[in-house]
Amino acid sequence: MSGPLTRHRHNDTTAFPGCTSQGRHGWTSAVIALLWLLVSPVAMALPADTPVGRVELGAPKDQADATIACMYPMTGRSASYGRDSIVAIRMALQELARDPQSPDLRVIVDDSRSKASFAVRMAEDFLQNDDADILCGIVSSGVGMAVSRLARQKQVILIGTDHASSRATLEEGHDYYFRVSSDTWISHAAGARYLKELQKETGWRKLAFLGPDYEYGRVAWRDLQQALALEGVRFEQTGTYWPRLYEPDYSLYIQSLLENPPDILVVGLWGGDFTAFIEQARTTRLFEQMRVANFDTGGDYETLVALGSEPPPGLILSARHHVNWPDTDRNRQFVQDFHELSGRYPSYSAQGAWAGMMAIARAIRLAGDVSDTRAVITALEGLEVPLPKDPDGFTSYIDPQTHQIAQAQAIGTPVSDDRFPPARVLLGNWRVYDAESLKPSPALIQKRRGETGG
Length: 454
Description:
Layout: E1 11-12, H1 23-39, E2 55-58, E3 66-72, H2 79-97, E4 105-111, H3 116-129, E5 134-137, H4 141-154, E6 157-160, E7 177-179, H5 184-202, E8 206-210, H6 215-230, E9 236-241, H7 251-259, E10 264-267, H8 272-281, H9 286-289, E11 291-294, H10 301-307, E12 316-317, H11 329-342, H12 348-367, H13 373-380, E13 397-398, E14 405-406, E15 409-416, E16 425-433, H14 435-438, H15 442-452
Parallel strand pairs: 1-2, 3-4, 3-5, 5-6, 6-7, 8-9, 8-10, 10-11, 11-12
Antiparallel strand pairs: 2-4, 13-14, 15-16
């Protein structure tokens, strides 16, 4: 295949693909990827057959009703999200294959490298050389925003399955962008309500925020401040801290927090970054001085594994999917199927990728033809997508105004639970916030879009 990007191909419709490389460049990339994974906090969870290049799943090109091109990290600290997303896509394709009325999807996945400029070139390559009908995936919000702008320019649909900056659907929302996992607004609107309730119980007053210094972290902090203001929560801000993404050493930030301790520290780190922060902070008195909350990604299964059997005290955590909540047939089946297919339990990114495939298939079926982009957009707006995350009596749906999926959010604290090894703790003591109450109000949408003329 010609094009601006060097690719390593995998073609797979049955077994999980092994890593193959061709030529000196391929072996060099694989060695670099392996060395990085060995020093990554998530390295222990990555199997030897983790792909580090292009993977093709589902129907062959000449038999497919649509080609879906997805971008996920397959190398670096966030590689586990790409790994789990591929497993979930395979699960979705298997489920769709059992329905004779579902479209036959060809799904291409390639390594975004968590770099915006690289992912944009990759997306252009998908459209030009692979005749992709729909783009999907993406973990980093900075990457997601860049590809969303390309989708708007090219008038091609992008289904975001993992990245979470609310700016993508509010300030920069457009006809061609949809997201099928909770965003920073949903998570921090729930977090604001939790903190309001906690303030009534404990009287806390001082709050600090620590998050990655890029799109996701900055928007998460703004969302939390706006949500707290709407809830009428008054607090003293003791500091904001902005380590770079994939920061290896948080000691200076930890020392600063200990010198001016808040009552509540809200952390916007995710994946290996949050795990690294916890591991470094637990060697100090930080958890004795403050409660630490992470409302969007902190309750991810991999983080719970890293906590061991004795997590630091006072943690308040949530994530976009939990292996043990809600306790429904659909969620139990999803977690079980994932484990049977991969030998491990899913991170929250898996449900996002699964939701993306199911939403795309449903929309194409309703539209009748993927080439009718306007019909597919119409089908996606308001589309109901039954998901493992849905509590009984509720079905996730894509809000027609924002193109953001509406979902409930559950926040908990670590409790001893070894049902999903190697995790020794899971979240419990749940507080659940319903989807309708977490949606941004029309006034907030107007304000956020008005600030940028959107």
